[in-house]
Amino acid sequence: MLVTRWAVAALRVFLVVLFGILVVFQTLSLPGQFAHMAQESPEQAYLRWPLTAVTVFWVLCVQVVVVCTWKLLTLVKNDRIFSPAALVWVDVIVWAVAAAWVVLVAVFLYVGFRADDPGVPFLLLLLSTGVAVLGLLMVVLRALLRQATTLRTDMEAVI
User: Fold this and answer.
1) Is-contact 61 97, C-beta < 8 A?
2) What is the pTM for the complete model shown?
3) What is the model's pLDDT at position 97?
4) How far apart are CA 45 and CA 51, in angstroms?
């Protein structure tokens, strides 16, 4: 139990740090990077706002996952992780990962049909596969959480 408390506290610290870094990326780094790219390569300046919107959306999806993880940690701390309330937060994580994956596949297809070099399409393929694995893993974990919640509810009814 002490290890769990320590892990939850450490995870919360890292979630706060991660969220802060994501806000900096979302508000300063990504818009500035694509504005700089538009100045340096005027022939690709038309990509500035679409790339800014897509990358800010991906960061938003990660922020949603961070917030949901925080909420799940609160349920763990209060010994309520095996409750229907936990399923709601896991569902939000699954939908955030799915939304990010759909946009990532669209970008992969757009870039894949226009690229001269296979490097970026392969990188996007790798990312798409990784996000798909993450999303499907979350679906499996959600099923396990649902089973555990049902078992706990049944045991509490017997006791």
Assistant:
1) yes
2) 0.90
3) 98
4) 10
For helices 2-24 and 48-77, give the axis angle rounded to 10 degrees.
Answer: 160
Q: What is the pLDDT of residues 67-124, one digit of tens each?
A: 999 999 999 989 899 999 999 999 999 999 999 999 999 999 999 999 899 999 999 9
Q: How far apart are CA 8 and CA 144, in angstroms?
A: 20
Max Cα distance, the chain (Å) = 70
Find where tokens 């893993």 sit: 137
Q: Containing H/E element for 27? A: none
Instruction: List the one residue out of 97, 98, 90 whose CA is nearest residue 71.
Output: 90
CA distance 157 to 159: 6
Q: How far is CA 48 from CA 36, 37, 84, 112, 127, in A?
A: 9, 7, 42, 19, 21
